[in-house]
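The passage that follows is intended for readers who have already worked through the single-chain material. We present the inputs for a multi-component assembly, then the predicted structure in tokenized form, and finally a short commentary. You are encouraged to pause after the input and sketch how you expect the pieces to fit together before reading on.
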Amino acid sequence: SALTQPASVSGSPGQSITISCTGTSSDVGTYNLVSWYQQHPGKAPKLMIYEVNKRPSGVSDRFSGSKSGYTASLTISGLQAEDEADYYCCSYTGYSPLGVFGGGTKLTVL
Amino acid sequence: EVQLVESGGGLIQPGRSLRLSCAASGFTFDDFAMHWVRQAPGKGLEWVSGISWNSDKIAYADSVKGRFTTSRDNANKSLYLQMESLRAEDTALYYCAKDMEQWLEGGTFAFAIWGQGTLVTASS
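Having made your guess, compare it with the prediction:
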């Protein structure tokens, strides 16, 4: 089943926010294969974090990832207006389906 | 420039078939696993299928298993999704996405590059 994310979070410019992503022992709890995606309206998703806490080349270091138990988290520090978007987590599961996404979190920059 | 371009979407009656294509450029296609991910209108992302670099491993979401078939042609740098017995709930924007590694299992299972998507609408 889908990973659980809050429907929405908000923060003011310059602040930090954290988006949680809760799974089970079959996915997040077992595998360090959690990734995070940013999606602006009408655009394709963009990979922000992979393998829990690794940043692809070109992604700002304001984005960081972590995991504890069954919950992974994405933290965005120094919020900027351009960070306003939908964010999705995804985890490998090792069974069928091989991958599962969270429901998505809408980030609003106040 | 690394690029993925999907094509083949359209309006199709429920029960009919459709084949999506994804043309890759700007990278060594056969060095990477590939995936299909879909997004229903106004909804979240759903992983649909993945295929390893050599087609040795192909996996599907339960919602499409037995109806959809993923394949790739490394010589032509193309990924395909054959969709049979389409249902209204298959209506979505279908993205192809490049993995960071060769394998579905034991790799990163992260979607590093995405196409712009092709819209499939299953409706009578």
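Commentary: Strands of chain A lie at 8-11, 17-22, 34-39, 46-49, 63-68, 71-76, 85-92, 99-101, 105-109. Chain A has no helices and nine strands. How closely did your sketch match?
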